[in-house]
Amino acid sequence: ILDMTEEKLRPSLCGRSPALTNVHNDNSRHGVSNTAIEGTSQDMTAEDAAVLRRQIMKLNRRLQLVEGENKKRPKREMVMYSITVAFWLFTSWLWFRR
User: How would DSSP label each residue in 16-43?
Assistant: First the structure.
């Protein structure tokens, strides 16, 4: 029983989803086997794993871009703040000079 709970908690790295692994374990525990379903589910999980890897890579790239923008944001805000303060000081100086 400990092996089954550890397998349910452990992430699957071989491309098989935990839900399908649990179904397979339940079927083998009860003496039921269906090779056609197992073969299809393994093929589908391999394809799903490839799709998920691609999606993770895309999300990783997007996350890196967002992190890069967040690093640049304080510099941009400081420049915009400085420009705004300089503008208001210049306009107030012109207004007082009249």
Answer: --HHHHHHHHHHHHTT---HHHHHHHHH
> What are 32-81's pLDDT values in tens digits?
555 445 556 666 788 899 999 999 999 999 999 999 999 999 999 999 99
Residues 6+ apart with CB under 8 A from 34: 27
Q: Which sign, positive or negative, has the C-alpha torsion 52, 58, 60, 63?
A: negative
Listed residue (28, 34, 37, 32) closest to 7, CA to CA: 28
Separation between Cα atoms, residue 17 and residue 49, nearest integer Å: 9
Query: How far is 90 from 22, CA to CA, in rounded Å?
Result: 71
